[in-house]
Amino acid sequence: MSMLTMTELSTEEQLKQWLKSLDKNSDGRISKQELREALRSTGQRFAGWKAWRTIKNADLNRNNFIDGNSEIEKLMSIAAKWRIVAGNDKR
């Protein structure tokens, strides 16, 4: 699911599938680099800054990766706020 536009990520299920596709090295975690490349593929401006900010806010265990259900939920909340997917910010 690469090269998606923001309108193609309109449901929570589509976002979950997109997030699974971000893990390029199949280690079960999303790195800042993987996230930055994914944000660029959706046409997001300031993808590097947004990736850094997302890792900072969603990385609850402070291992510099997005991994685990609670961190994925936080990432989805941030994606909704940036209108990558339709939905509410669940903070």
UniProtKB/TrEMBL annotation:
Pfam families: EF-hand_6 (PF13405)
Name of the protein in question: EF-hand domain-containing protein
InterPro entries the UniProt entry points to: EF-hand-dom_pair (IPR011992), EF_Hand_1_Ca_BS (IPR018247), EF_hand_dom (IPR002048)
Keyword list, A-Z: Calcium
Cross-referenced SUPFAM superfamilies: EF-hand
Sequence ranges assigned to domain EF-hand in this UniProt record: 10-45
SMART domains: EFh
